[in-house]
Every structure is written in structure tokens, then in C-alpha cells.
Amino acid sequence: MAPIGVDEWVARSGDRRDSGWRGGLSRIDARVGWWPRLLVVGLLAFVYGEFVVGGNVNYAQTGFNVVLYALLALGLNIVVGWAGLLDLGYIAFFGAGAYGYALFSSHAFGNLPLASGGVQLPAVASIPIAVAGVAILGLLIGLVALRLSGDYLAIVTLFVGQAFAEAVNNVAPGTLGGANGLFGLQGFKVGSAEIGSTLGYYWFAVIALLILMALLHLLDTSRTGRAWRAVRDDSLAASAMTIPVNKVKVMAFTFGAIVAALAGTIFAAQQSSVFATNFNAQTLILIYACLVLGGAGSIAGAVLGGVVVTVAQQLLSSPIDSAYLFYGILVIVLIARVRPWRHLGAVVAAIVGLGFAAHAIVGAISHSAVAGSPGSAGWFAGALRHFAIVPRGEPLTYGNILYVAAIIMVIAVVQLKGIRRLIAVVPTVYVGICCWEARLTLDPGITAQIMIGAILIVTMAARPEGLLGSRRVEVI
Amino acid sequence: MTRLLELEGVSLSFGGLRALHALDLHVDEHEIVSVIGPNGAGKSTVFNVITGIYEPDGDIRFDGQSIVGRRPHQITRLGIARTFQSLRLFLNMTVKENVKAATYGGTHATPIESMLRLPRARREEREVEATAQDVLSFFGQRLLGYRFNQPAYVLSYANRRRLEIARAMATGARLLLLDEPAAGMNPNETHEITELIGRLRDERGYTILVIEHDMHVVEGISDRVVALDHGEKLTEGGFHEVANHPGVIEAYLGRNPEALQK
Amino acid sequence: MHIFIQTLVTGIVTGCLYALIALGYSMVYGVLKLLNFAHGDLYMVGAFIGYFAIQWFGGAAALIIPVPLLVIFMMLVAGLGVGALGVAIERFAYRPLRNAPRIAPLITALGVSFILEDSVLLLFGGFTRNYNAPAFLPFTESIHIDGVPIDSVQIIVVCVSLAMMVGLRELVNRTLFGKSMRAVASDREAAEMLGINVDRTIAMTFFIGSAMAGVAGVMSGLAFGQISNIIGFLAGLKAFTAAVVGGIGSIPGAMIGGLFIGLCESFSSSYVSSQYSDLIVFGILIATMLVRPQGVFGQPPLQKV
Amino acid sequence: MRVRRILSGAVGVMALASVTVFGVTTSSAHVAKVAAAQCKASIAIEAPFATGPATQLGLEQLHFAQLAVAMANKANGTSITLGKDDTGLNPSLATTRTNSIIASSAVAAVGPAGSQEVEAVGPLYAKAGMAFVSGSATLPALATSGANKTFFRVVPDDDIQGPNDANYIIKHKLAPAGSTILIVDDQEAYSEGLVAVMTPILKAAGFTVNHQSYNGTDTGATLQSDLSALATSQVNSSTHLVIVPWQSAGNAQQFGQTLQQQGKTVTLFGTDGTDSPGQFVIPGTYVSNFGPDISTSKSAVDKAIVKGIKKYGPYGAFGVPTWEATTVVMNAISSVCKAGKTPSRSNVLAAVRKTNISATQSAMGVPIKFKADGDLVAKAGYLFHISSKGTYVEISDK
């Protein structure tokens, strides 16, 4: 028997969790060091850029956006994930970085006496200038934020972010361009060499990302990283353990700002223009989505979040791809939630049966009620033609009714238990499919937003700590 | 014997409520002093003013220099570390990280140095690692081995108390303030803690100021006992004289001396 | 003088609406410590319900029922509908996260806001609709103060808002529900142990808060005409400012804060520039927070060591 | 039990993988094959029809474009498809959309609607050598700056509309000589541009010009306090005319109502951005536009359009130019086909440059012929007066 005070249950808790294939993975995971993982990330990025993109601007753009959001999430992770400061003004640093770069690489100063024709510094000069400027901004805001904690901090920073957008929109329109923003920026340029293509910026961003991941990992496992997390868990205890809480907090703000600013400069150079609307609450929410979906507090999580959110958005923006995403998620959810297998089989069979039956009946009554073509293309569009009920033309009203119905049914399914739920799933899925084919595919842009919102809610309900995040206990 | 800690006419009041009143208290090098008193007597408040969480009137000197008005982390750097009655570990950090975090004040590598793992950063990391090992090993069986890399929140209550002490040790302090180290422990664990506190002084040379309710522990460890009530010192001296001091008995349990005798 | 009074009137009218929305924010924050970013969108939904109520009864130009009846009906339907919606959201989105890390419900709230805004966009399209209230509540029926006309809509807005605020105060201070709400706000676990039905209390809080936002939506439609699926965000932001300035979690705070923000806005745009009014309001907020983080009426959070 | 879990996990992973693979490998919107036999191609329209402050305008443009595609396909025997991209009148959104259009197989584009959007995407299209024809971007610099080499527009720019309006105001004494004219911009490129053009002309005519601005992106109560502040403190007894060159007809309507409600009697003068019989109906208002009112026109084309567009309900003057712009692109493609070539970006661009539509064939009432910089050769402008019943009446004499 173990000596008193050694509690076996706790001691073994680790081993208990390690069972099944997940356990296997996590054991492997535990053995691998940090730099092999980094290599894997780099390899994936290389494969995508080298073989997948293949000159397609759209893919290059997607890849760039992924890396950009990963960068932003990394920076946010310092402030939110490690130091535990709920900074809703993060977007301001991103914006400041972008505008900083824009000012030194465009005609912006053209209408000032000192620099007619504008300031056109090379990237090696303008990036450090912009980043340093923003670092100072972060320092100042950090100093101000010291007086606040928790939600109050969140509130003030939220308005700092809003104020930034308002300011660039209204102040000095001659220089900042007001609502028209600044455009015609020169790209990253050293001497005569200039990054011209989106793919070029993709590579640049990837390198920046890899370097940052390495540096931040080393920082996280150093005294500074420990201090940040200590302050997050209990700032009072931290201060009683020789940690200068305020200094540490300001440091976190500044580092977050620096990363955001770097991302901002890359963003501005790639878009070759900046607009106040690039830095609105919408973008902030997406960055938070990346971080929280991936798992706040984990570097890999932040990056994964960036991938998931951006790719999801990209897929959702085109009817064909979004169909794959939609049905893919549907399948995965069914597999994951409906156990055991015979139930799954029964449900799927029931859905298919219901579909063709309903289609046949409605078709018999009125042909035009099923004459419409499903919104999604691809190999299964043909099958869907005899499955989903889609009236002729653009059946908006019909689709809207289905949409509302689908939402209500989903809510109902969540409420039901056991066999009732199993039964309710069948019509819900079918209505969902019909709604998707008849309505949601007509407005990809809107659908994307709705799906993102849904993904956020579901993830938070299923796994509040995010995909790669570790479970947190909080003393409130 | 040199005076390590000295409180002189320390008073503190929250709005109208008077938490401490003209309190004099001193702790000598290598001494174990217990502070006793009924709930709300102001024991924890004493710790809070010493560690700089509240700023009192009067003077507090540590090793001869006044520490009133300094920030908590500065005071800890000078060599006063504490544990909390309501456990305040960094629950989401591993056991080892909890201890390492407490070495922040003792190390100086800048973030840049840490990022690039420059020589100073490497050296300090090694030292920190050693400190952590050393401090944790002090608790023998209890905190050793497989538990180092588990988050603190999986620890049992007793082990959380141990970890708090370990954390305090890692700050490199000379004076430990232990706030009810035996609270909520079973008799065996209580017994261990009593031994442990003794060893802290004898093996590690710490000076210890401890708040404790459990009279067995107090009796077992104290060189000197200070009794507080309503933020004022009732009496101080050896355990038995304090325990039999009528004021103390009354303060504790009105008119029922038996409880303290056994 | 004329300008001053006119500005004052505008400020009070907009301020009342901000106050109504702010109340919801404040109540929800009080019981759940949750910044419910979806609240502004509830107000937007209310505005739409009101609009469709008008269409239902023949449209602004050709109403088939007496105007007072219509106004009451709109507010009733919007209040109940949005209230129910609020309860549903709490039940399905927030309740599962009661004990999750603080950031989780925040993100969920953002998700809900996405879904509300874009569902309305999907169902009704993004173009602005107009209540066209003057058609049935003409400006001509108005009283004048020093040449400043105050029309029936403005009077309705102010009266209804005040009535609701007073009602809410009574509800919170006098009734059993009010007591249990305050209990839950101060300590949920303890309240639960004392046999208070926490779930029902929270649901009720959401209902009342959301209902007020819904009514506010209808009145803003009446007063300003234009509604679209994006009016929620800015209104929510401003109301939120109001709640914070007044002291988030405090009901009188929300009322005063709302009026304060409304007046700030109208005066800054009248006397400084409409261009910078938002900046000025945000400035005020940040200043308030730094001078008095817990807001004007809020209690400072106490720390136990 | 464990086996089952492993299986389920594996299946899940595979499903996810397949999803992403499919997703990444299937290209995005606007897919269309170009076959030599029949004249097939795809074009795209960028308009703010789903999001942003001007969805009314955007929907109108979308509908007229769809109509134009249908009509031209029928007339020319082509089968050209139209991809629709919503830009929310937002430059950054327009930039992303344009990138995906350029990545697609579209050979030319219609739109975008806003001048600030064109400023953002013009260089991108120029780089891709792809023609884009806007029906509403009127900022003069767009053509003259030389940054947008593949930009065309079927509408006269502000240097024509602005002076037209100012001169009309002067000529017809919409405000008594020497009185104050309030002109308010909504902080958009479009608005600020017009203000810059009109102000000096009005000043020269002896008016006192009071230039104010408000945040056009505000909504609800905030917008209201902006507008009523303008009405309260800027419209005084000496102000008789208020010019509102805004992009949102709804805001103009709300401003008009605020003025009425405050008992201020002034004349409003709106520009093309506010031209919307569905939304901006303050009686006695003047609204200028670059498009004619085709509803009363006798010409065959106009009749056909009116007939075709009926099902979409009320429309303003934004549809017609977009119809024209789309038709320009459609005709260019069919001319390429007639020449026996398969439509490509370069040859379509060339064909668009050579566009020559006679006044009778165009819905704009003027011949469509482009200068080198993409501007119209013809200068035309139209003016409407809103009757007491809230209907738009075209003013013939300018």
C-alpha cells in the first residue's frame, strides 16, 4: 500500500486517460520534441505552396490567408492564452502595423511639404519602423490597461479597437485616406528585388510563421512564459512569488502587439492597399475564433485554428466546395454521435428512404415542386436530384421556411434523449439537406457567416478548451 | 540572536473596521513563532501587511530595513515568502512549473535572451531546474517523480499544501510565513507537517512564522507563541503559558478551559 | 437656445433607447457575468418584428386598425417574441457553458450574433426597410417648446422607456423574482443551495432583458424609420458603453448611462462635429473606466486573500 | 469496444481528409468550358447585392445584369454565364472577390459599383489584362489616373454630373442669390469627390457654401443623432437648399424626415447615389442621375428592358447603366466569336475598346463609345424632380 499522502487515484490519472487509439497518439505526442513538429508544419506548408497551389491565384491567396490568420492567432495567444488578458483591442495593433507600413510605402505623405511624391522606404526599413511604432503603442495601452482586470479590461480594449477604426476613418483623411484607405502600396522590396506574387508573400509569411513558432515556444518554456501563465492563473499569488505582475502584463501586451504588427505589414504589402474596414470587429472575431477553436494557450492550437477557420471560410465561399464541407461535417457528426453501428446504419437508411419517398410523393402531386436543380454541383448532384425536394426557379420562400424549420428541429434534437433523438435525427437531417440545396447554396457569402457562427457555438459547447487546448480549471 | 522581522505599532483598518491595532511582533533568526487566535483575530491580516498586500501604519523591518510600502514581489525578493490559507497554486501549470515560476525574481534573462537561448538564459534554466528538483525532493515520497509534469489541479489537498511550501522555498526566501499549513489534513498528515516544519528550520535553516489553529501542531513546533484577538496582541511566550493565559482561553472559548488542556 | 433644446430632445430620445438596451446587457451580466454580444442583434430582431407587424396590418400608408392599437400590438409582439428568442438562446447556447472558462461563452455570444445577423440577412435580404412612421404618426401632432417641435413618436419613446425602467426597478426591488435575481447575481452556488431555482431565474432575466431590447427595436423603428440587419452591432456597442459607464450590473447605472451616452452623442455632434461623435463617446468611456473602473454606480469587486 | 472506437476514429479522419482534398482540388466559382463550336464563356458581376449599406442598389444592378445577359444570349445566340460576387460596397471585400474572379475562367467583369472599390481592384484587373465595365463608378480620377488600364464606364463622371447639378441650381435659382447652401458628404470617395467639384462653382455664383460631413456607415440611433444634429445646428433661416451627394438613399430619406420633423422647410438636392424611387421620396426634392428614366421612353430597347425587369418591382436609375455595361461585355464576346476566335481576356478586352453602340440601341440615350482612358465620349446627365406623390419626374430642360 502506498504511504499516506501519496494518492494513487491522482497518481494514475495520467495513465487512465491514455487508453484506446487517442491514448496511443497522445503517448507518441508526448515523446516527440518540439522541433520535429515544427518540421512537420514546415513540410506541410512547403507541399502546399510547391505542389497544390500550382499557379492558381485563388489557392495562393487561401494559403496566404491561412498563414496570416495563424500569425495573428499566435500573437493573440500571447496576450489571451498565456497572460490571460482578454484583449479585444488586438485588431488595433494589426491595423496600426498595416497602416504604419502603408504610410512608408505609398504616396500617403505625398501631400506633405517635407516629402512630396510620398515616402517609399524599402521593406527592410519600413517593417521595423512600423513594428517598433506599434510595440510602443502596445506598451502604452498595456500601461493603461494595468489598472483594469478581467471584463473591464476586455471592455476598454474593445473600445480602443473601435476607436482605432473610427480614427483612421476620420482623422487626417489627407494622409490616412479616410474611407478610401491607402492603395497602390509598393511590395516588399530590397534593392531591386521585389516580392510580386501572392505566392511570394505566402512563402514570406510561412518563414515568418515558422520562426515565430520556434521563438515563442522557447519563450513559453522560459521564465517569462512561466511568469505569464502564473499571472494568468493567480496574479496575487504570482506577485507573492517574486513576479512583478504589472511589468509582466505590459510585456505580454507589447509582444502581442509586435506579432500583430508584423502580420499587419505583410497583409498590407500583399493586398497592396489598406482600408479602415480591414480592421473591424468582424476580423477581430475571426482571429479570436482561430485562437479559441485551436485552443488558447497552445502554439500548435493557434496555428491549427488559423487553418481550420480560414479554409472553412474559403470552402464556404464557393457552392461546390461548401457542399463537400457541409456533407462532410454531416457524415462526421453522424458517425461520431450515433452509436452503435447498427443505429447509425438504421438512421442513414431511414434518411435515404425518407428522402426518395418524400421526393417521389411530392413529385407525383406536382412536378414543378421537384423540378428545381440542387444548388450543389459535383458528382452527387445527380443523386440529390431524386432525393432533395427543390422547386423550380429560385425558391426563396420555400428555402426560408425550411431554414427556420431546420433550426427549430436541430434545437429539438439536442433536447431529446435516447431513441426519440434517434428518430428525430432522420427528418432533421433531411430537412437540413433540402434547405441546403434549395436555399443556403444560393447565397454562399451569407451561408459562410452562418456556418462560422454555428461552428463557434458547437465547438464551445463540445470542447470549450478548443481542439488542441488543455482543460483549464478557473477559480472565479 | 538577531532580529529578522520586526513589526512596530502596526495598525490597519478597512473603512471603519479595525483589523490590526498597534501590533508589536518580532521573529528572530532560526526561530519558529506561531500566531494563534480565534477567527477574525487578524492573523492572516498580519501576513498580508508583512507581504505588502496591504499597506499599514507603523513600521515593519526585515533584516533591519523597513519594508512598508514596497510591492509584494519586492518584499518576497528581500526574503519573505508565504503560503496562502486559501490555496493559491497556479492550478493549470505543472507541479514543477509552479516551483520554477517562483524563481522569477532570482533570474534575469531577458525575453530576447530566452528566445535565442543565449548563454545566460541557458545557465539560469539549468539553475532553476536544479532548484526545482532540490526543493521538491525535500518532500521525499510526497511530491516526487511521476507527478512533476502533471498540472497542479490533479494534486490532493495535502499535496497542494506541500506544493505551496515548496513554491515559497523556491523564491530563495529566508523567512517563511505559513498560513495554516495543517488546515484540512488528517491526523497522520498533520503529524507529518509538524515534522516537516521542524526540518525546514533544522535542515534548511529557515526562520518560520506560522498561523495555526491545531494546538497539537502549535505545541509541537513553536519556540514562541503569539496570541492575537481583535487585531491586538493578548500575550506571547511559551506555548503553555500562552495556552493557560486567561485572556486567550476566554478569547477562544468563553469559559471552557478543558479544550486547550488535552 | 433653440439649438440647445433641440439637441437635448434628440439626446433624451436616443438615450432612452440606449438605456433600454443597456438594461438587458446589465441584467445578463449581473446574473451570468457574461458579456452578451448578441444582445444588440436581439434589438435588431425586435425592429424587424415591428416592421412586419405594420405590413401585416396593411402597411404604413393604409392601416386597417387604429394606430394606438397597432403601436401597442407591435411592442407586445416584439417584446414577447424577442424575449422568447433570448430565453431560447440562453437555454441552448449559454447554459451548457455555465462552468466553462470565461472566454468560451464570450465566443459563443459572438457566434450567436453572427447567426442572428446573417439569418435575418438570409431570410429578409440586406436592404434597408423603412417603418415610414410619419404616414400614421404625423409630425404635425406635436407640442412645441420654444419653437422646438416634439412629436408623438418622441413622446411615446420617452414615456414607454421610463415606464419600463420604473417597472423593472420595482420588479427587482419588490418581487420575489427580483430577490432571487439579486441572490443569483451575488453568488450563484449559494443561491442554488438556498433552494432558489437558478435556471429559471436566469431564463427569466434573459426574457426580461431581451424583451426590453425588442421593444427598444420597435421604438427605434418608429423614431428613425430605417432598419436593416446590421443596426444591431452599433446600437449594442453604444448601449454596452452606457451599461459600462453606469456600472455594468447596476440597473439605475444602465438607465443613467444610457441617457448620458445619448446626450453626449447629440451634443458632441451638434456642437463639435458629427464626424467625431463616436470617438468622443469612446473617449468618455475609456476615461470613465480609468478613473472609476467599476463605473459610476457599480460596486468594486472585493478580493479575498 | 476499442476496435469500434478505432474504426470510428479512422472513418472520421478519412471523411475529413476526403472533404479537404475534394475542397481544395475542385476549383471555386464561375466554372465554364470554352468550346469552339458554340460561343460559350463566363463573365462576372461585382455588386453590393447581399451585404453593406447599398444592397438595394446592388440588387437592382444584379437584376438588370441578369436581364442583359438573358437578352444578349437570345439576340446573339451565345451561351454566356454570369457569376455573381457580392462586394458590400467595401473595397477590401471587393479585393478578395476580384482575386477569386481573376483566378476563375471569367473573361471579363461588370462592376464594381463604388468608386473606392474600383480604386482598389483596378490595378488587379489591369495586371490580369481583364476588361471590367462599371455602371456607377463616377470618380473622374478612375479613368484619368492611368492606374486602371482595363477600366471602362458607361456613365459620365462627376466632372460632368457635378457641374451639371451646380449649374442647374444656379440657372433655375433653386436657392435665392447669396443665400447659404449646405452640402454634406458621407465620408466616402464618391461623396467627397462630388463636393469638391460642386463647391467652387456654387461659390463663384455668389452662394455661401457650408460644407459638413457625417459618418455614412452609422446606423439607428447614432445615425439619427448625426442627422438631427446637422438639421438642428447647420440648417438655419438663411439655408434654402441642402445638397446630399450620398450613397445611401435610405439615409437621405431619414434626413429629409428629420428636417420635416424639426419643421425645417428646405429643398433637398440628391445625386445618383440617392436615386431610389423605393427609398428616397421626399416631395419637392431634386435628384440628378447619369441614367435616363426609361419607363416613359419610346425606343424598342427601353420597352424591352421595362418589360423584362417588371417582375423585380420598383427600380431606380442604377439598373439601366449596369444593363448597358453588361450588354457592352456581352456584345464584345459575341463579336469575338463571330470573328471565329474563342473568347479570351485579351481579345475580349480589345473588343470592348472597339465598342460602338448607337444612341438608339443604347438604353443610356447616348451612343456608347469609349475614349482611350475608358471614359464615355458622350456627355450626358439627367435630372429628376420628386412630385408631391413621391414619384420621380424627369426634367427635360437642363
Task: Explain what you see.
The complex is a heterotetramer of chains A (476), B (262), C (305) and D (398). By secondary structure, chain A is an all-alpha fold. Chain A folds into 2 domains: 33-316, Orthogonal Bundle (ABC transporter involved in vitamin B12 uptake, BtuC); 322-442, no CATH class. Helix content of chain A is 71%, strand content 3%. Chain A has 20 helices and 6 strands. In chain A, a hairpin with a 2-residue loop joins β4 (189-190) and β5. The longest helix of chain A is centred in the middle third of the chain and has 27 residues, at 245-271. Chain A starts with 7 loop residues before the first helix and ends in a 14-residue tail after the last helix. Chain B has 2 domains: 3-89 and 170-261, P-loop containing nucleotide triphosphate hydrolases (Rossmann fold); 92-154. Chain B contains 11 helices and 10 strands. Chain B has helices at residues 43-50, 72-78, 95-101, 111-116, 119-137, 157-170, 187-204, 215-221, 239-244, 246-253, 258-261, and strands at 3-14, 17-28, 32-36, 57-62, 65-66, 80-82, 175-179, 207-211, 224-229, 232-237. Chain B has a 6-stranded mixed β-sheet, sandwiched between helices. In chain B, α3 crosses α5. Chain B starts with a strand and ends with a helix. The model of chain B has no long low-confidence stretch (mean pLDDT 88). Chain C has one domain (2-291). In chain C, β2 and β3 form a beta hairpin. In chain C, α2 runs antiparallel to α3 (67-94) and α3 (67-94) packs across α8. The model of chain C has no long low-confidence stretch (mean pLDDT 88). The longest helix of chain D has 24 residues, at 2-25. Helix content of chain D is 44%, strand content 16%. The chains are: A mainly alpha (476), B alpha/beta (262), C mainly alpha (305), D alpha/beta (398). The interface between A and D is large, with 51 and 46 residues.
